[in-house]
Amino acid sequence: VPSGVTVCQLCLVSATPGALGDALLLTRLERGQEPLSVRIATERGQAPLSGILREFERIQREQREANACTERREWWERRSRLDLRMQ
């Protein structure tokens, strides 16, 4: 990973090989840092997978829109709001 770049990876995982995934695994990668992974349960109504994926798609769409923003202050405001939603 290049210096100054953060990579986030989202995977659908299951504890049982061959079974439909029952959790999302969000992993953050940065140069010089240990990978940081967070398991997000999606079973038993804790966080419906379809809702999580819809929100993630909205965040990605809004990030693309923010990238087109040429005003620095507005870009940072948008980026900060998106960062909070990703938490």
Strand order of the largest sheet: 1-2-3
Q: Name the shape in a single word.
A: globular
Number of domains: 2
Radius of gyration equals 15 Å
DSSP strand (E) fraction?
25-35%
Detail the poorly predicted runs.
Answer: none
The helicity comes to 25-40%
Distance between the termini: 22 Å
Order of helices and strands: EEEHH
- Backbone structural class: alpha+beta
* Sheet with most strands: 3 strands, antiparallel
Count of helix runs: 2
Integer average pLDDT:
84
Overall number of strands = 3
Task: Please tell me about this protein's structure.
One of its GO terms (biological process) is meiotic chromosome separation. InterPro entries: Peptidase_C50. This is ESPL1 protein. With 87 residues, the chain is of the alpha+beta class. Helices cover 39% and strands 25% of the residues. It has helices spanning 49-67, 72-86; strands at 6-13, 23-30, 36-41. The longest helix has 19 residues, at 49-67. The two termini are 22 Å apart.
Please provide a brief summary of the model.
This protein has 87 residues and is of the alpha+beta class.
Descriptive keywords:
Peptidase_C50; three-stranded antiparallel sheet; about 90 residues; single chain; cysteine-type endopeptidase activity; ESPL1 protein; alpha+beta; about 25% strand
Write the layout of secondary structure elements.
Blueprint: E1 6-13, E2 23-30, E3 36-41, H1 49-67, H2 72-86
Antiparallel strand pairs: 1-2, 2-3
Helix pairs in contact: 1-2
Protein name: ESPL1 protein
GO molecular function, one term: cysteine-type endopeptidase activity
Organism: Agelaius phoeniceus
